[in-house]
Write a sequence for this structure.
């Protein structure tokens, strides 16, 4: 926004606005509304509809107000007889080629064309309906979520511009010219067959019923709205749930959402129907043995049964014989209560979370180097980046709304470096070309990041002033001596990483000298035996060149699930209380003991792998699994299921009878995000309100279920509502000190730390100093993984996600998203396929030393020779049957990304 101002007069009103403001926006600031169809706040001015024309003194003709910038002394009239006549005539032309079925149209009451016809005073259409028109154009019903009716299209280009400017897919275009102009998907394909990713931006932009949600066509216009937060990925998009009674009609991305600012993806926008799927379990169930049939019971009976058996196990085997797993899908309040129940009611610290199996190395690595266990920036910061480094992440599939932000910046000229074994879409897509793609061999992350650091140190690219002022001098000197060793050079590492030394050198120079440089990374960094080492290596690199503490820079983990950050914040690890404070710290532990009125165990408890190993050894006998499907999502499936089978009591709380529930004795039905009251914390530390749009279909909120179980175990928990739980969290967690439901309702959302000093939260961390004081450099010695390719298992398998499905697919598989991805497939390079006699679409047998699975092959050069790739969204595929027990040295985060396999034709 310009700091220079311009004075002008609009309809006799004197106003002052920043230079560069359009006449339309200037008029709005004066309270003057100008009729429009092609203009929206979220798109660049286009000037095609000619409805927003105005009369400007001294100007010939009637210019479009949306594309005309203000000038000093300008006199504008928005309502003259000539302006009114032109607007009515323009509207007549639109209506003459538009169905007049307003009373039966799905957009009746929510149609801008209808509104503008009234605004311009249209009372007759002189042109009639005779002659050539588009009224019989055929509908495209191919997309499962919305209809495209070209008969109602006014060719305003808003859908095309939304696809280009907001989403960045460029799937739509205006084909032909003049009267023959029309919106086309792809190369005149159906929406389903085209490159359209069903983000909904076109539907939201459409001013008529041309693009309409099928849910609106079926149910009619909604009558109330509730603002809430998406429960899919770590972006944490804000949505307005538009309701009719207790039924969702549509989910509309909220323009004021801090994370998404009015954008969405196919999952958040459309894939919410799982909440009412017929498979959903709504009543508690119990059974004595896992071979017995389930028996529906009341909540009182189910809770009493679970508590009684847990107590009996502890009486026989000791206090540490049971534990719990919290969920990264649930609210902060629910997660907080689960870990509190384990510590206070179970009397031990055997609490872990799925966040450990994805991003625990982030928490460990960033805490060791920066002093805090979270990313440094907000998502908006990417708009100021000149160089963007994406490591082990696939944002267009896993974090699509953030990817759209990133792509906008790349189209504006920012440079991109992709470090990934696979050629993800960002490497080359419409109007985007990575400056460098470093296709490293799986397991060699640390070697490549060390090689980049070697270039920076040995070529004199270190930001000496930043390091001197902000970092620990002793650790930096030790790190420099280590990183400068010849063994860390790009030439030395090329032999085993597979990345050409020249590319590493050029990428390192670009990162160090290209302006503001930001690193974004994902599970391809953390899910390795050296995950924590790699996170520390990334932090070392950023500190060395001073790329921290300001817009457009930083170290930014792209969290996988909606509340991975919150699950970690809430103390879901066996060694840490909420706020990442160690359980062995007497002072910290005393604060919780005083608040909770119970003595806490000072010894860290068991992680999930330890619980499972202890169960198979006969020492661990009972577990409460809250919203997780470890039998599908955790590595080495046989080991997981053997452990579950060995336990005396497995209690599962979830929406559906998942793979883990096959081994459960008690099933507590959970609540969908549409029924939850609480908060999620996204990947940028943003705490968002989750508001219930309908009552819990199970009769109880999940936090109430945890409270009842804890009380039945002998430790009473009593809260009147979820807001009281957040108040307790804020009283015990310094980074949440200023957070409350009332505060979030006032300001929308905040990023922690939020306290008296920063009541509106903290967008950018470490601006003046690191949380730990001086940034600490750590030695990151590359240690090859024990999981290596061999003659028997010559290929390396790595895993990832696709856009339309989510994690283990529990939710998305129960929506129409299966039309895009109904099975997991194995990507294999043409050379590897040819030597094995494998063709595209063939069944293949994939075996590791842990097990074997069967998939269909997809022959593609997205993966390099020697590497294969699959997703893990479908239980029939059972990808984790073949993953190994290897894990990160510091956190036990599983090494999902490196599994030696053999692939051969299947039957």
């Amino acid at each position: 926004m310009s700091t220079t101002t311009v004075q002008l007069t609009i309809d006799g009103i004197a106003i002052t606005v920043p230079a560069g403001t359009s006449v339309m926006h200037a008029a709005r600031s004066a309270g003057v509304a100008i009729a429009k169809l092609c203009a929206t706040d979220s798109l660049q001015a286009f000037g095609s509809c000619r409805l927003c024309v105005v009369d400007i003194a001294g100007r010939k003709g009637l210019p479009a107000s949306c594309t005309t910038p203000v000038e000093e002394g300008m006199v504008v009239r928005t309502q003259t007889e000539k302006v009114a006549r032109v607007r009515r005539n323009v509207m007549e032309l639109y209506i003459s080629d538009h169905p007049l079925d307003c009373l039966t149209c799905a957009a009746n009451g929510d149609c801008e064309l209808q509104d503008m016809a009234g605004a311009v005073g249209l009372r007759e259409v002189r042109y009639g309906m005779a002659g050539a028109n588009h009224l019989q154009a055929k509908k495209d019903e191919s997309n499962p979520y919305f209809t495209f009716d070209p008969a109602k299209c006014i060719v305003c280009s808003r859908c095309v511009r939304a696809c280009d400017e907001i989403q960045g897919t460029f799937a739509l275009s205006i084909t032909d010219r003049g009267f023959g102009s029309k919106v086309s998907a792809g190369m005149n394909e159906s929406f389903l067959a085209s490159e359209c990713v069903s983000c909904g931006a076109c539907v939201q932009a459409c001013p008529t019923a041309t693009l309409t949600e099928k849910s609106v066509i079926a149910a009619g216009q909604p009558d109330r709205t509730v603002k809430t937060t998406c429960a899919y990925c770590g972006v944490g998009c804000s949505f307005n749930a538009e309701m009719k009674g207790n039924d969702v009609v549509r989910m509309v991305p909220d323009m004021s959402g801090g994370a998404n600012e009015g954008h969405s993806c196919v999952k958040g926008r459309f894939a919410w129907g799982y909440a009412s799927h017929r498979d959903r379990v709504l009543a508690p169930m119990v059974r004595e043995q896992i071979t017995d049939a389930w028996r529906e019971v009341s909540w009182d009976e189910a809770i009493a049964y679970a508590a009684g058996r847990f107590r009996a196990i502890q009486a026989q085997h000791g206090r540490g014989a049971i534990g719990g797993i919290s969920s990264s899908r649930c609210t902060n309040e629910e997660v907080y209560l689960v870990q509190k129940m384990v510590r206070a009611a179970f009397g031990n610290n055997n609490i872990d979370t799925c966040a450990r199996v994805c991003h625990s190395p982030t928490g460990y690595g960033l805490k060791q180097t920066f002093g805090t266990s979270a990313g440094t920036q907000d998502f908006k910061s990417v708009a100021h980046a000149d160089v963007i480094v994406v490591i082990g992440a696939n944002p267009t599939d896993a974090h699509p709304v953030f990817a759209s932000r990133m792509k906008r910046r790349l189209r504006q000229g920012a440079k991109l470096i992709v470090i990934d074994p696979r050629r993800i879409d960002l490497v080359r897509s419409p109007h985007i070309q990575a400056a460098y793609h470093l296709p490293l061999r799986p397991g060699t992350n640390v070697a490549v990041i060390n090689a980049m650091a070697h270039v920076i140190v040995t070529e004199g690219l270190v930001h000496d002033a930043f390091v001197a002022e902000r970092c620990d001098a002793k650790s930096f000197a030790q790190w420099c001596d280590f990183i400068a060793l010849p063994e860390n050079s790009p030439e030395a590492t090329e032999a085993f990483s597979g990345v050409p030394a020249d590319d590493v050198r050029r990428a390192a120079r670009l990162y160090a000298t290209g302006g503001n440089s930001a690193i974004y990374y994902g599970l391809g960094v953390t899910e390795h035996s050296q995950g924590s080492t790699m996170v520390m290596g990334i932090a070392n690199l950023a500190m060395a060149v001073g790329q921290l503490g300001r817009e457009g820079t930083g170290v930014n983990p792209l969290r996988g699930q909606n509340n991975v950050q919150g699950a970690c914040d809430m103390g879901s690890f066996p060694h840490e209380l909420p706020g990442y404070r160690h359980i062995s710290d007497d002072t910290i532990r005393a604060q919780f003991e005083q608040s909770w009125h119970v003595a806490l165990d000072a010894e860290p408890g068991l992680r999930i792998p330890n619980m499972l190993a202890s169960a198979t050894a006969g020492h661990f006998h009972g577990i409460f699994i809250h919203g997780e499907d470890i039998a599908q999502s955790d590595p080495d499936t046989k080991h997981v299921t053997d452990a579950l089978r060995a336990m005396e009591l497995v209690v599962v709380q979830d929406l559906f009878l998942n793979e883990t529930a096959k081994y459960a004795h008690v099933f507590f039905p959970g609540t969908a995000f549409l029924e939850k009251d609480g908060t999620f914390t996204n990947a940028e530390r943003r705490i968002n309100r989750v508001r219930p749009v309908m009552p819990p279909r199970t009769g109880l909120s999940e936090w109430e279920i945890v409270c009842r179980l804890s009380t039945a175990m002998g430790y009473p928990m009593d809260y009147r509502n979820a807001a009281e739980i957040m108040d307790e969290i804020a009283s015990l967690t310094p980074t949440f000190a200023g957070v409350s439901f009332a505060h979030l309702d006032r300001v929308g959302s905040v990023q922690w730390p939020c306290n008296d000093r920063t009541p509106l939260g903290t967008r950018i961390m470490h601006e003046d100093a690191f949380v730990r004081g001086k940034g600490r450099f750590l030695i990151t010695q590359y240690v090859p993984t024990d999981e290596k390719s061999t003659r028997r298992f010559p290929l390396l398998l790595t895993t990832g996600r696709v856009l339309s499905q989510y994690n283990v697919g529990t939710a998305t598989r129960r929506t129409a998203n299966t039309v895009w991805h109904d099975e997991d497939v194995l990507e294999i390079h043409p050379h590897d396929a040819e030597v094995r006699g494998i063709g595209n679409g063939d069944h293949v047998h994939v075996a590791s030393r842990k097990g074997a699975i069967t998939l269909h092959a997809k022959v593609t050069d997205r993966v390099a020779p020697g590497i294969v790739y699959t997703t893990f969204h479908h239980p029939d595929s059972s990808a984790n049957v073949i993953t190994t027990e290897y894990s990160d040295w510091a956190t036990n985060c599983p090494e999902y990304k490196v599994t030696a396999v053999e692939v051969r034709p299947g039957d």
